[in-house]
Design brief:
The structure holds two protein chains of two kinds. Chain A is an alpha+beta fold. Chain A is built from eleven helices and 14 strands. In chain A, strand 6 and strand 7 form a beta hairpin. Helices cover 33% and strands 18% of the residues of chain B. Chain B has a five-stranded mixed sheet with strand order 2-1-5-3-4, with helices on both faces. Classes of the chains: A alpha+beta, B alpha+beta. At the A-B interface, strand 1, helix 2 and helix 6 of A face strand 4, helix 3 and helix 4 of B. The complex binds flavin-adenine dinucleotide.
Chain lengths: 304, 153
């Protein structure tokens, strides 16, 4: 299995030449999805592996003219340690902080997470409620894909084999906005979301929700928005009745499957519980109240 | 297809010839000849294969060896100073943090990285930092105690 060609690209142009030649070449960033698939026998390595981890222009993140720009190779560890992400785009920090272990967060990249297209991926839901756009580059140039249009199914994206993800752009949020990502997990590390929910809300001066986005993770073949949960919170001050309606809306919009981690009914019930928590934390942050990152408690009380 | 490269491990250069898909743990054990790094689950879950790449913990079972060309790899063999154990290694012995020993290299590497980024951790931080390292013998308390002892010096 190991007898494959290996190239380390140092520029995007070089990587595009190597993957755009019609062969079965595939890029590897951190390899934490690719290699696990290979080692478990699920998907063998392609004939040619193109390592992109040394491409300087695909590293880094920062705020440019109010927008958050994250290059594809930014690691989860870098994202959740970034002060701008933590203060302005908090749901994404909640998500990256939960990925795997310290080692997974060092190795795993944002681009790899998005392009692997798992419906349980951590960063997709937060980026969806934050209104992110993904940049795909091919020999023909760049195209900007709204993140809601990136995935076509589990493990599938709209990117062609010759396209690289170079990064994402996340717009600035209006004043009095807050966001959060919460996942249901059975253990405190090395977990995959049983279900997850992301929320981003904006309040007016009197605390009424004027805009709301809610996304559901691991509850459909791709990450999806929940229009019913969004409608339930809009125009309210986020009181208990509104949050209960959010829960009912999220459960109604969920299209879960049964697998060995949870059955369909349990996932649907938990969709509501977790969406309600995500909206409540987002509203709390929008009001300027602090809430720890990650919003999913990493340690249950009394576990140490 | 073999790729002739130089891996830098524990401060030494090792010229090796590797297939493109060789995981780092296999390169370390089969080509470099350092047996401290263990292959456990081979699926990134257990942490027995933990090494540092440019000072950061990485599961070597699922990291391509050729991706480390140009980086510094540190294995458990790199933690001691010759025959003198590091304070962390001694603390594992003092506290009985080693039973069968298979997880120990990975535990030491993860804990070493923690103490470098956070020299005075709480026990909660220690447990979180070792969240990617499984031990089936000790029940973890003695390992956590060993790391706390090493931190307190
Ligand atoms: C132990 C363990 C725990 C994990 N826990 C979590 C978790 O809690 N939450 C979570 O969401 N994920 C988790 N993951 C999955 C994985 O770590 C993340 O999805 C990570 O972000 C993948 O990034 P990578 O750079 O390692 O991807 P790679 O494996 O390098 O790439 C993944 C896929 O994307 C393609 N690709 C990579 N970069 C690009 C690019 N720039 N352009 C185009 N295609 C690209 C590759 O060809 C490949 O098909 C876990 C993995 C492991 C091994």
């Amino acid at each position: 299995m190991g007898d494959v060609a290996f190239h380390t690209a140092t520029t995007v142009a070089e990587a595009l030449t190597l993957v755009g030649d019609g062969s079965d070449a595939r890029v590897v960033a951190g390899g934490s999805d690719l290699m696990v698939g290979v080692r478990s026998g699920k998907s063998p390595l392609p004939g040619t592996v193109v390592a992109i981890h040394r491409i300087a222009e695909l590293h880094g993140l920062g705020v440019v003219a109010g927008e958050l720009r994250i290059a594809a190779l930014a690691s989860h560890a870098e994202i959740c340690a970034d002060a701008d992400v933590c203060s302005g785009w908090t749901a994404l920090a909640d998500a990256s902080a939960l990925v795997g272990s310290h080692a997974t967060r060092n190795v795993g990249t944002l681009g790899g997470n998005l392009m692997n297209a798992s419906p349980a991926m951590e960063t997709g839901g937060p980026l969806m409620v934050l209104g992110a756009t993904v940049t795909l580059r091919s020999a023909a140039g760049d195209r900007a894909v709204p993140i809601e249009e990136l995935w076509t199914g589990p493990g599938r994206t709209v990117a062609s084999p010759g396209e690289l993800c170079t990064g994402v752009v996340v717009p600035a949020l209006p004043a009095h906005s807050g966001s959060a990502y919460v996942r249901l997990e059975y253990r405190r590390a090395m977990e995959i979301a049983i279900v997850g929910a992301s929320a981003c809300v904006t309040l007016d001066e009197s605390g009424i929700v004027t805009s709301a986005r809610v996304a559901l993770t691991a509850l459909a073949p791709t990450i999806i928005r929940s229009p019913a949960a969004e409608a339930a919170i809009l125009g309210t001050d986020g009181d208990d009745a509104a949050l209960d309606a959010v829960a009912a809306g999220a459960s109604a919009d969920a299209r879960p499957i049964s697998d060995l981690r949870a059955n369909e009914d349990y996932r649907r019930a938990m969709a509501g519980v977790i969406a309600k928590r995500a909206v409540a934390v987002a509203a709390q942050r929008a009001r300027g109240e602090s809430f720890p990152i990650p919003a999913t408690p990493v340690f249950m009380k009394g576990s140490v | 297809m073999k790729h002739a490269v130089t891996l830098r491990v524990n401060g030494m250069d090792y010229p090796v010839e590797l297939e493109g898909g060789t995981p780092l743990v296999r390169a370390l054990r089969d080509h470099v000849g350092l047996m401290g790094t263990k292959e456990g689950c081979d699926d990134c879950e257990c942490g027995a294969c933990m090494v540092l790449v440019d000072d950061k913990p990485v599961n070597s079972c699922t990291y391509l060896a050729l991706q480390t060309v140009g980086s510094e790899v540190t294995t458990v063999e790199g933690l001691a100073d010759g025959d003198t154990l590091s304070a962390l290694q001694s603390a594992f012995l003092d506290q009985g943090g080693v039973q069968c020993g298979y997880c120990t290299p990975g535990m030491l590497v993860s804990a070493h990285a923690l103490l470098r980024r956070s020299p005075d951790p709480t026990e909660e931080e220690v447990r979180l930092a070792l969240g990617g390292n499984l031990c089936r013998c000790t029940g973890y308390q003695k390992i956590a105690s060993a790391v706390m002892q090493a931190a307190k010096g």
